[in-house]
Amino acid sequence: MTEIAVGKRLRSQAHGTEVIVVRAPDQPVELTCGGSPMTAEPVTAAAPPKPAAGEGAQLGKRYVDEPTGLELLCTKPGREVPAADGRMLTLKSAKPLPASD
Amino acid sequence: MAASGNPDRVAVGRLRSTAEDAAPLTYPGLLDRARAGAGALRERGADELVYLGVSGNAFAQALFASAWAGIPLVPLNYRLGRGQLAELLRRHSGALVVSDLDPPARGPVLTTREWDALCARPAADVDPWQDDQDATAILLYTSGTTSAPKAAVLRHRHLTAYLLGSVEFGAADEADTMLVSVPPYHIAGVSNLLSNVYAGRRIVYLETFTPDGWLESVRDEGVTHALLVPTMLARLTEHLAGADVPTLSNLAYGGAKMPAPVLERATRLFPDVDFVNAYGLTETSSTIAVLGPDDHRAALTGDPVAKARLGSVGRLLPGIEAQVRGPDGAVLPDGGIGDVFVRGDQVSGEYRGTASAVDADGWLATRDRGWIDDEGYLFIEGRADDTIIRGGENVAPAEIEDVLLEHPAVAEAAVVGIPDEQWGQDIAAVIVPRAGHATDAGELQSWVRSRLRSAKTPAVIVFRDSLPHTPTGKLLRREVLADLLANAEPR
User: Fold this and answer.
1) Is B346 on the interface with A (CB under 8 A)?
2) A-contacting residues of B 101-160, CB under 8 Å?
3) What global pTM score does this model have?
4) Which structural domain, as residue segments, surrounds residue B21?
5) Which of B119, B118, B157, B166 lies closest to B138, judged by CA?
């Protein structure tokens, strides 16, 4: 099972999705994307087609797994949203703050 | 991320200028330059990058290049005297120094033009960006309470926590443009670069602040957002009768306490602008509390609670906790005035070469005194210690006292901050003359100015027969200040 530690970059070979771990889960989970595991390995497969707007995992959005507290930041968009132990992660709603600097 | 998310937007630079250091750079362009700069740093074996200069593209490239190379960026104050600079540079002997000041460095020095040229080379093979969250990103000097400056250590995880807690990726509109008037050696100079790149908002740098220059930049560049310290806002409100700035929508201020009359004048000068007050420390990776536009507007309705909150620094960012503690260390209930402690992932509290200032439970003493109201608004009353904050810049009284005491005619010296509408605080000195010597205020002011700099020269110097001390010999600064204010002389 791939270790999921804060700051770690994880990738999906098949779907192009890349994330950075923002908050680690409070218990080990199996992180998958479109059914296959996400790992720290560099992507070697040919680049998959880019997701359409509003589809899949979106650049700069955060995805959370409520039961374990796992939080991921999407650094490369992909057609599939990651899942933890089979639970599809949900988009974290952003609380708008005024630009302070 | 910014490069792939906003490939066509300009990250930094002016659109209507021919100045080389302000040429527009897109996000992919900035990324390429960071890669090339990182390669140059690796080639030279630099273990740190010292940036001793004004804001500009060269600074933006320095920040991202050093991060890519996995070495700390050390922004230094270009206004420091050469003696102080030499002492600081000795602590960074393995650094590559970027500066146009012919600095007293032992290692390699590049001018900003040379640095810019290195970054503009086609990027060679450079190892990929490391994801070490624990690596030191920034070493930033705080003046502290003693005259010995301390370097706050900000790691990538602190800065990342700040960004994730306060900025939404790519949230800026395409036309959004931030005019930055703070220098790179101020924490806001570092944090705004990160937050604006993350938000996708173009940055325009104003090297030297003047009211006319600022206004011209706002108009020429279609500036929508601006970042100022209260001193600059005070100068704007004094020099501009009316300011036609149709594009300006958001004005953030911070770095020092904003005098109420200045804020009042500013809201009249810019009636359609959203005002934001940001409070934070170098040690907390910039902003930890924000007073937003709605709070500013509520105050205009005349509601007394809302009006009082205009004197607060607003509410804490998500991910930040605060406590107010009494003299015995116990946490005070809402409304109790005491020492302000904060906690959160963006809080560093670590200094190079000393133990962390954060306690076992993660709390950092801000050394500010204040209180929190029942809706979570944080009010800051002043520094727990005696640091003078003049125009957003911390001035340690001890440093000035030391210089004054070197003068043959000075027996004792006490330096305190006095309220000043333009600077927030200005510097006053009380002198006990040495018997048999004669001097005057003008002579002592020149003495300090020639040894430190004008920003650290007391605006007021008065003479007394003695200074108030505790039985154990500690100077009673509060009494010195009370005496000064009670016997204020015309300035």
Assistant:
1) no
2) 131-133, 156-157, 160
3) 0.84
4) 2-309
5) B157
